[in-house]
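User: Is it possible to get a 3D structure for a protein together with its bound compound? The compound here is coenzyme A. I've pasted both below.
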Amino acid sequence: MEDKTAPKPVVVLRDAHLAERLSLEDLQWRASLVHPAYRNALLEDRGIVHLPLEHLADGGGIVAEIDGKVVGFAVLLPVGGGVSELGGLFVEPEMADQGVGRALVEEAKRRAERSGDVLLKVVAALKAEGVYRRCGFELVGETETLLGRALIMLQRLEHSVAE
Ligand SMILES: CC(C)(COP(=O)(O)OP(=O)(O)OC[C@H]1O[C@@H](n2cnc3c(N)ncnc32)[C@H](O)[C@@H]1OP(=O)(O)O)[C@@H](O)C(=O)NCCC(=O)NCCS
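Assistant: Yes, that's possible. Here is the predicted structure of the complex:
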């Protein structure tokens, strides 16, 4: 059982390199397999998981490392109208529950705020709702994805609270 009092490892964040697209796509596939509802579809069609190169361009890909090893990544996409979308958040299953996901969300928030956006959106797997709520998102709706029903969640970014 996880020791909640154990110190969390130091997570180093950096831009994703275009050349690591395939290894990040593999990480995304491994991470997504943890969802029982998605597992069969993912095992039947590996192609469901696709990380477009353009999502990693211009600082859109954020990689998390622990001790020099890639352990997770997120994708931040500009949507327009003051909105950025967290287009992906994936952590190696054996490195889950150690703060990597939160570190990536916080970095995505900082980057979206720096670009002047006021809202951060995510289309969340059902099983990830609790993690996203914990990281500040609120549920605003539902949608369908290639992997089935998913949740639309939003959070207001700090500098937008001017009132
Ligand atoms: C979802 C995922 C990215 C989370 O990454 P992680 O590194 O395990 O998350 P963290 O350890 O940083 O936890 C983030 C917060 O959520 C909390 N949390 C974790 N599991 C939770 C749960 N089931 N319910 C509620 N909160 C939860 C943690 O306690 C932590 O809160 P804290 O920082 O206030 O202590 C990771 O499990 C993953 O890759 N899952 C498979 C792919 C996926 O579902 N991606 C997201 C949907 S697109």
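The pocket of coenzyme A is lined by residues 31-32, 34, 89-91, 96-102, 124-125, 128, 130-131, 134-135 (CB under 6 Å). The chain has a mean pLDDT of 92.
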